[in-house]
Design brief:
By secondary structure, this protein is α/β, with parallel strands linked by helices. Helix content is 33%, strand content 18%. It has a six-stranded mixed beta sheet, with helices on one face. Strands 26-30-29-27-28 form a five-stranded parallel beta sheet.
Length: 774
């Protein structure tokens, strides 16, 4: 069994499993492209010998394309890629449709434009665009799919008689699901013999046999860069006698069908790929039978590494080169970070929508939300080799072991779980975030005890896994208040871990001891050598409490020494909790704010229930510098009545929209972002030559760090432990810090947060490990 890499100093070799997004240009294809730039560089429209040589390359590539896709008498037009091909098809079909429309019937008859609900976004967006530009005003309608991603034939049969165009795809780019083109052909033509039909064949090229001329498909766009050719070259099949309107007019190239000087380097590279597909090259692609075996091996390894894995599509109707799955309890972002740390490139869906947090394809298939939000796609092409598959499986196992060693999963398969040498026992505070909501876990390692505050349902399984894996005894699981924006999972965790414990409605245990502070009695729990003090702080809700982790109170204590104040939604970063719920009270919040300040002072760290701007933690001192209302309350500049008036005005700006996250506080302002020093590899090297005190910190999660890191970054402070780091370094904020993460995003957020909290010399590595040379 392969263990985690023992030498993390050297970067692991790249394994690229995102072929559905793009592919590496094969060396032989790149060489052919280079030859047309250096030697056979003629313009195919020129009539001299150099031009004739270029014409020959283009003519050969066209013949190959026609043969591979079974074009028959149809046309092959070279384009810049699939998106241009899609525009060409849709524009051609809609212009022809508009000419045949009965103008008097347009207002009385409802026409539609049909597309598969799981199509690449380029298709519906192009339909909407040209529908509007051409003033056709048809209804753009998605064809439903079932849980296996298959188009609804009954829906098509019902809707296609009134459709002006129908767009489907051969193979889906996210799931690899393929459609039954013969059944589609029969269904469409039985109900509308003349409708224009486009089939996106981008993901089918090289993975399925195509014989387009034997179908009634009118248009079929293809892309070169999805099959080892350069970006910027593609082609479209146009059925003989199908309507056609050029998208690009000009010099009359491509027989006037697509003007512009032809991309000869792209065509030369594409020709090499076609040679390989046709078995006419000394280089060959892997046979489909072997691709199925590769698929089986990777799937088996995934199941072994992640026993609770869920596959998001049936393999029965999918090409073998795409595997889409989800790991319960882990978001797409977390899994991508994990695989990136193992130097395995995967994606969370279409590369054209990297900012999207869930898969519209899986949503259309009716899969649960968590699968859509946790989807990971592994995709490879016919150039995949057995050696690379073996390496892939080794990395998958290593990645899973890193998760287990970080106690984010538990070894249920008795796989080798060799201890990672840089693993540390869990101690102190851990922050979990889901959207803008926070959960908190505090661990006392000496007594192996822990408490949880404001547990979110999305992290319940992870919390319980960590408790089990680290052998921790749960002392209490407590909500800071009754939450309006989610249902707490406190009761379910308590039922599992604290079945015999008697508590109040928020989870505070019965019969706890009390202590007197400033004449007031407060209940507390003991955790190791610390106390967890309960303070009633109503305002946001009537039942709101704050929980203060502090040093024990003794007769000699002159003030409360608070490490963390878990104050729910009393004080938020750059805001105060809203007070316009039925159980809210602005006057009560005014009193609670003054009480909290008396107890914790201005420097103790506040750990709220929400963090809407990724600021992690704050303090009263940090907040009064930007929150004028809080400043006035703390400094006795206003009374309760004035506070209530101001609070009413502030909360009026909160608008609760159906289906959106309920905001538990109105942002005072956008907030000034702290400027941080940005380094690249060269400038960091120079800075380190000038100063020996710079502390280099890798802020990725422990499992990412364990898989691979730059040895100079000897400190690992995951974002989930950043608040703990802040508390531990309250007295040495002058030390220069440089942070690094995978892409530079997390390190930039962390650097800004540290700067806002008084750390004076904070920088980060721009672009993270993606750009860092080591």
């Amino acid at each position: 069994m392969t263990n985690l890499p023992t030498d993390v100093k050297q970067p692991l070799s790249l394994i690229y499993l995102d072929a559905n997004a793009t592919t590496q240009v094969l060396p032989q294809a790149a060489a052919a492209a280079l030859a047309t730039m250096e030697t056979f560089f003629g313009n195919p429209s020129s009539s001299h010998i150099t031009g004739l040589q270029a014409q020959q390359i283009m003519a050969k590539t066209r013949r190959q394309a026609k043969q591979i896709v079974g074009a028959g008498e149809g046309e092959i037009i070279f384009t810049s890629g699939a998106t241009e091909g899609i525009q060409t098809a849709i524009l051609s079909a809609l212009i022809a449709a508009k000419k045949t429309l009965d103008i008097t019937a347009i207002t009385s008859k409802k026409y539609c434009l049909l597309y598969g609900a799981t199509e690449h976004k380029a298709v519906p967006e192009s339909l909407k665009h040209w529908n509007e530009i051409l003033d056709i005003n048809a209804e753009v309608t998605a064809i439903p799919v079932d849980k296996m991603g298959r188009l609804d034939m009954d829906f098509i049969a019902k809707q296609v008689p009134n459709a002006l165009m129908i767009c489907t795809m051969a193979v889906n780019n996210e799931t690899g699901v393929y459609q039954d083109l013969n059944l589609l052909d029969k269904t469409i033509r039985a109900n509308n013999a003349n409708i224009a039909w486009m089939v996106d064949c981008v993901q089918a090229l090289g993975k399925q046999d195509l014989n387009l001329a034997q179908t009634s498909i009118d248009y079929a766009p293809f892309s070169g860069h999805k099959l080892y050719a350069p970006k910027g070259i593609g082609f479209i099949y146009i059925k003989d006698n199908a309507p056609f309107t050029p998208v690009i007019a000009g010099g009359g190239q491509e027989g006037g069908l697509r003007s512009g000087t032809e991309n000869l380097p792209g065509l030369a590279a594409l020709s090499v790929i076609f040679d390989m597909l046709m078995g006419e090259s000394e280089h060959s692609f892997t046979p489909v039978k072997s691709l199925h075996l590769f698929h089986q091996q990777i799937v088996a390894t995934l199941i072994q590494a992640f026993p609770n894995i869920v596959f998001n599509h049936s393999f029965e109707n999918s090409v073998p080169t795409t595997i889409n799955f989800a790991i319960p309890g882990f978001s797409s972002k977390e899994m991508m970070d994990l695989f990136d740390a193992a130097n395995v490139r995967v994606s969370s869906g279409s590369a054209c929508s990297s900012k999207v947090t869930r898969s519209f394809v899986l949503d259309a298939m009716g899969l649960p939300s968590w699968q859509s939000e946790s989807a990971i796609r592994m995709s490879f092409g016919p150039a995949m080799t057995q050696e690379l598959v073996d390496q892939t499986c080794e990395r998958i196992v290593s990645a899973a072991q890193a998760l287990r060693q970080s106690c984010l999963t538990i070894d249920t398969n008795a796989m080798d779980s060799k201890v990672i040498t840089d693993n540390k026992a869990l101690e102190g505070l851990v922050q979990f975030k889901v959207g803008g909501s926070c959960s908190w876990l505090y661990v006392d390692h000496k007594t192996k005890s822990a408490f949880v505050i404001d547990p979110l349902p999305e992290v319940a399984e992870r919390l319980q896994t960590m408790l089990t894996c680290h052998g921790l005894k749960l002392v209490a699981v407590i909500d800071s208040h009754g939450h309006a924006d989610h249902v707490s999972c406190r009761a379910s965790i308590a039922k599992t871990c604290l079945a015999e414990q008697k508590t109040d409605a928020l989870g505070w245990p019965d019969n706890t001891p009390t202590t007197n502070i400033n004449g007031n009695e407060y209940q507390y729990l003991t955790l190791g050598d610390k106390w967890l003090l309960k303070v009633a702080t109503p305002g946001h809700t009537e039942d709101s409490i704050s929980l203060l982790l502090c040093e024990p109170v003794t007769d000699s204590s002159d003030k409360l020494v608070v490490l963390y104040a878990f104050c729910g939604d009393l004080i938020l970063m750059n805001s105060l909790g809203r007070t316009n719920f039925d159980t809210s009270s602005a006057p009560a919040m005014f009193t609670s704010l003054q009480l909290l300040n008396t107890l914790i002072g201005t420097e103790s760290l506040i750990c709220p229930s929400h963090d809407y701007n990724n600021e992690f933690t704050t303090s009263i001192g940090a907040e009064i510098s930007r929150n004028s209302l809080l400043h006035k309350v703390i400094n006795d500049e206003i009374n309760s009545n004035f506070f209530s008036i101001q609070k009413y005005t502030m909360d009026k700006g909160i608008i609760d929209e159906s289906g959106s996250e309920i905001m538990c506080g109105a942002l005072i302002c956008a907030g000034d972002k702290v400027a941080v020093r940005e380094y690249d590899s060269a400038s960091l090297t120079e800075a380190m030559k000038k100063s020996s005190t710079i502390k280099l910190i890798d802020i990725r999660e422990a499992h990412e760090y364990a898989l691979q890191h730059d040895e100079k970054f000897t400190y690992n402070v995951p974002l989930t432990r950043l608040v703990q780091f802040v508390q531990e370094h309250q007295d040495d904020k002058q030390v220069p810090l440089v942070l690094i993460c995978r892409s530079g995003s997390r390190s930039h957020l962390a650097a800004q947060a540290l700067g806002r909290l008084g750390f004076e010399q904070v920088g980060h590595l721009t672009g993270g490990y993606a750009f860092h040379q080591y």
